[in-house]
Amino acid sequence: MALSASISLYFRNGFETLHLTELVTLFFLGGALAWPLIVLMAGLFARGAALETRFAACFVLLALGTIGVTALLFAMDYRVFYAEWHEPVLSKIGLKQLFGTTVSASYQFAVLGMRLYLPVGLPILGGASLWLAKAMR
Predict the structure, then answer these.
(1) Is the pLDDT of residue 76 over 90?
(2) For the chain, what is the largest distance between any 2 Cα atoms, rounded to a whole number of angstroms?
(3) Are 65 and 41 in contact (CB under 8 A)?
(4) What one-character-per-residue DSSP string does 25-71 give?
C-alpha cells in the first residue's frame, strides 16, 4: 500500500507534499498491520470453500481491513495532534471529543486518503486476494 500511495502521490503532484514520508509510512503501517488480521479472518470465513468464494472473501476483507486499519491509524494521529486541546480521554467530555475526532478523521480519510489506493492498489488487491485464496485451500 505504500507503493500504491507513492505512485498516486507522484502522478497527482510529483511528490510535492509536505508530509510525503508520513503519508507513505501511514499507508505502509495500515497494510502491514491489517494483513495478519485479514489472513486470520479469511481463514475463519472461507477456508474449505470454492476458490471463487475464497477469492471474494479475501478481496472484500483485504479492501475493508486495509482501509479500516489505515483510517484508524489516521484517526489516532488526529487524536495525538488534538490531545493538547482536549480533555482527558476517560472523562465524559474527553470521550465525546475522542468520538468526534475519530469520526471526523475517518471521514477525511475516506474523502482524501482513499484516492491514494487507486489506480495501483486495485490490481495489487486483486493479485493478493487471488494468491491468498489459492494458499488457503
Answers:
(1) yes
(2) 52
(3) yes
(4) HHHHHHHHHHHHHHHHHHHHHHTTS-HHHHHHHHHHHHHHHHHHHHH
Residue 83 burial (10 A CB sphere; 0-12, 13-18, 19+): middle
Q: What is the pTM of this model?
A: 0.90
The band of 109, judged by pLDDT with boundaries at 50, 70 and 90, is very high
Of the candidates 79, 109, 110, which has an alpha carbon nearest to the alpha carbon of residue 97? Answer: 79
Residue with cell 467530555: 93
pLDDT single digits (tens) 15-28:
888 889 999 999 99
Tell me the residue length of the chain.
137
Q: Which amino acid is at 129?
A: S
